[in-house]
Fold:
Amino acid sequence: FIEYEKTGDKVHYDFAYYLGGIFYDKTEYNSALKYYDMFSKSISPKDKRYYPSLFKKIKINYDLQKYEDCAKISEELENGIDGFDDNSKKELYSIAGNTYFHLKNIEKAENYFNKLSEMNYNLTIPYAAIGLYYYEIKKFEKALKYLALVEDKSDNLKIFNALADIYNKTGDAVSAEKYYLKLYSMHPSEEYAVAAAKFFDANNNSNKAAEFYKIAVKYNPENMEALYFLGNLYFNLKNYQNAAGYLNSLSKIRHSYEKI
Structure:
């Protein structure tokens, strides 16, 4: 092995393959990558060890977060994929899909993940990530395609927040209401009570808005947005006693901030 490293004699490429395996098993990935690279450059793709060595290389590069190198190897591995068993195919498609997602090449990521979907692979996490990516760049139709596939399999609040916001912005108030209420039921809190209240207020449902702003005040008696809304609501309803209670609380909070 030492002589091989000194001379680089390609007659001894077998040594590089064995050294790659030794270092891989020891999780010394940089050294393993070095020898697998020597090996794969020294032989023909017709050698039965060629594609398995590339497979080890892509796994190592992925662990080392060398995504550009992973992308190059994944393209070449496509030529030898037929010789892989189903578990290896799944692992390759998962690595390739996540690689292209990290590289922001979402179309290629989708391609690999869709191959996985045909193999009964659990794609909840990658499909959620793709859906949320499309939501962030405001491609709502594509976002809905992926988020709809995972909403029944996930308790990720980001998914339901995105669904509520998308339906709200695209004018589907019935669906938006469903998800704002689901968000609050999943995670009762000031934040999601206010989100629901804002939705109902924007859709001219003052009663439901008041219901959730009152909930918000229970979580945080100094929620100025909720106090202002409720004070004005009761004032307009000529319920001056309740209006005074909320507006006086609001005035005290503002006064205390002015002193700071």
Notes: The CA atoms of residues 33 and 57 lie 6 Å apart. The two ends are 73 Å apart (CA to CA). The first helix runs from residue 2 to 7.
